[in-house]
Amino acid sequence: MQENQNPQAEEVLEQVTNPAEGAVVSDAERVAQLEVELAEMKEQFLRAKAETENQRRRGVEEVAKAQKFAIEKFASELIAVKDSLEMALQDQSGQFENLKFGVDLTLKQLLAAFEKGQISEINPLGEKLDPHRHQAISTEESDAEPNSVVRVMQKGYLIADRVLRPAMVVVAKAKS
């Protein structure tokens, strides 16, 4: 007798034979068994597909929520600054020194909020012009090195390492 070279065929043959009775299962019974297995596999597939879709949807919702509320901590810091500014505007005492002291404290609050929000100043006085961080408004003759910043018209700001607003500067040019 010739041995079967295909192990998968032997496995299928074993599945067709009912080991308890030693008899071959009829085609109708085998089809019924396969239909039950197919229905179970379909159910498992649909459940897995639904779970994957639910995870994707939850991920999208979490990203949207993170984007929407990412500024929440920084905003709560700025509310304290706004409250201080409103109190300064309501001051009717006429004492300039007290008002100046209050505005100075408010500025310190704002700087602390900036630090917590990873916002830092770009104040490039004396530095070489960097077009990624500075915006040259004009040039003026100066003894300083050409293309170096001689005046800062408006400070720039970074969030972490990304430019939020470039510094507006006046750049030196060689004297004629």
What does this structure look like?
The protein is an alpha+beta fold and 176 residues long. Among the domains are: 18-67; 119-176, Head domain of nucleotide exchange factor GrpE (Nucleotide Exchange Factor Grpe, Chain A, domain 2), CATH 2.30.22.10. 53% of the residues lie in helices and 21% in strands. It has a three-stranded antiparallel beta sheet. It is elongated and about 105 Å long. The mean pLDDT is 86.
Q: How would you summarize the topology of this molecule?
A:
Elements: H1 7-16, E1 17-18, E2 23-24, H2 27-69, H3 72-90, H4 96-116, E3 119-122, E4 134-141, E5 149-154, E6 156-159, E7 162-165, E8 167-173
Parallel strand pairs: 4-8
Antiparallel strand pairs: 1-2, 3-6, 5-8, 6-7
Specify the helix fraction band.
Answer: 40-55%
> How widely separated are the two ends?
108 Å
| Spatial extent as radius of gyration | 37 Å
Number of strands: 8
Identify low-pLDDT runs.
none
Number of helices, where a helix is a run of at least 4 consecutive DSSP H or I residues: 4
Proportion of strand residues: 15-25%
How would you characterize the largest beta sheet? 3 strands, antiparallel
Mean pLDDT: 86
Give the strand order, joined by hyphens, for the main sheet.
3-6-7
Known CATH architecture of the domain at 119-176: Roll
Instruction: Report the oligomer.
Output: single chain
In one word, what is the shape?
Answer: elongated
Look at the structure and name the CATH superfamily of the domain at 119-176: Head domain of nucleotide exchange factor GrpE
Q: How does the helix and strand content classify structurally?
A: alpha+beta
- By CATH, the topology of the domain at 119-176 is Nucleotide Exchange Factor Grpe, Chain A, domain 2
